Amino acid sequence: MKIRSRVKSLAIASTGAANLASVAALCRRAGIEMNITDDPDLLLEAPYALLPGVGAFGPAMKRLEDTKLGKAFVARIADRKPTMGICLGMQLMCESSAEAPGTAGLGVVKASVQKLAAGPGAPLPQLGWNEVRPSSPACFVRAGWAYFANSYALSFIPQPFAGSTAVYGREFVASLELWSDKDDVAPYLLLCQFHPELSGPWGLALFRRWMGVGQTGEL
Amino acid sequence: MRRISHTSSSVGFAADVCSQPQCRAVSPRTAVRIIPCLDIRAGRVVKGTQFRDLVDSGDPAELAARYEAEGADEIALLDISATQEDRKAAPDTVASVRDAISIPLTVGGGIRSVSDACRLLESGADRVSINSAAVRDPSLVGELSRRFGVQCVVVAIDVKKSGTEGVCAWNVCIEAGTIMCTGLDVAAWARRCSLEGAGEILLTSIDRDGTASGYDLPLLRNVCGSIEVPVIASGGASRPEHFLGGIEAGARAVLAAGVFHRGELKIETLKRYLSAQDVEVRPC
């Protein structure tokens, strides 16, 4: 028996391949109600929405087009409604990806996703915890350790975004954020290359702050 | 700061080229992962020696939560049920562990098909590990990685020394070590798995499992040198030096079970030791 009016809710785009159990566990911990949906109207109207990220760029993009969820994301971001992307969900917001040459992304981020630089001792995929470094002290994403599972990423923070980076072979973008107003408590667009849902208390604290259910004195 | 001399290192760490702690600049990669492994049978954690003589070691969710609090970077859950009846408990166990932890969870044991994998992923696994089914049908590795992404697919390889040196010095075994001779050479099989779409190899030495005598380092060097995907070292680690040896042999993650379950080595202690040896670990 939930009192709906007092519980914040997050609409999660149903992308088929994404494993949502960990995201569901994150929502439970944060006291957030989640609705998985493939209805573009519901997604557009939702107070908070998430594009999750497991799978491959090409098939995921096709599904976003078939379901019209992609257009709903672009529209809600244009309206500055709180929107989050995780891992592949961040990459899909870009113009294109080296993972699927010729496939156009949603184009919210004017940059193209590159393959990470593999090297001795840095095999692909990158699997594990890496140190996230905010590009400025004002960043919403704070310094800490986050869990990554990816072979592709952005290689620079494009305008007009703020963000954070990490290093795997070479520097790559760990997160991007876009603020409507500097006096806001959180950016309306938060894109994470890492998995907040698998990044322990640091990830939970980030998610809580973004959803506006953070507790004082947290990370 | 001289590290315990263990092996001729195949991985260059900062300590090898400079002795000043301050010249360790930005790490070029992720931290090495410490992975406690929970062997599960009928919903309980069990531990054996060389895959036999199982003893009860506790409740999976409780143990997993304790390990996360102590600094574990990931939890591995291996369902070693011998019967279909016992195996029915696996999705519930996965769900209860998922609820108890907020770090990655890799689940293996008894996965024969995409739908088996799907069931465990839906229950809360982040990654699935397949073993015997991959040997029987290597195309399953590709099917899983196309569907869920390479980062989701671990191929577990159980290995036993064949007694002869040179080609096929290590035999790939399946069905929890009960089928000892598949005729597959471990390096060749690991290469095949990475080409099929495995995102990581979980390499277990059956000879060393539960013996507390350290990882099989020649085996690790052989496999790590043959493939470009990351390798998890498994089987035999009990002392901090064993874990360091596995990392120096090329493993990107180190797994152990009994030594953590019995409380003989705390993950925090292990991480402090590795850090003092200039191995980058995530702070607890």
The figure for the number of domains of chain A is 1
Strand content of chain B: 15-25%
Order of helices and strands of chain B: HEEEHEHHEHEHHEEHEHEHEHH
| β-strand number of chain A | 12
Secondary-structure element pattern of chain A, one letter each: EHEHEHHEHEEEEEEEEH
> Biggest interface and which pair forms it?
A-B, 43 and 44 residues
CATH architecture of chain A: 3-Layer(aba) Sandwich
Topology:
The complex is a heterodimer of chains A (219) and B (284).
Chain A: E1 9-13, H1 21-30, E2 33-37, H2 40-45, E3 49-51, H3 57-66, H4 69-78, E4 83-86, H5 88-91, E5 94-97, E6 109-115, E7 126-134, E8 144-150, E9 152-153, E10 162-168, E11 170-178, E12 189-192, H6 200-211
Parallel strand pairs in A: 1-2, 1-3, 3-4, 4-12, 5-6
Antiparallel strand pairs in A: 6-9, 7-8, 7-10, 10-11, 11-12
Chain B: H1 14-17, E1 33-41, E2 44-49, E3 52-58, H2 60-70, E4 75-79, H3 84-87, H4 90-100, E5 105-108, H5 114-123, E6 127-130, H6 132-136, H7 139-148, E7 153-161, E8 170-173, H8 186-196, E9 200-205, H9 217-224, E10 231-234, H10 240-248, E11 253-256, H11 258-261, H12 267-276
Parallel strand pairs in B: 1-4, 1-11, 4-5, 5-6, 6-7, 7-9, 9-10, 10-11
Antiparallel strand pairs in B: 1-2, 2-3, 7-8
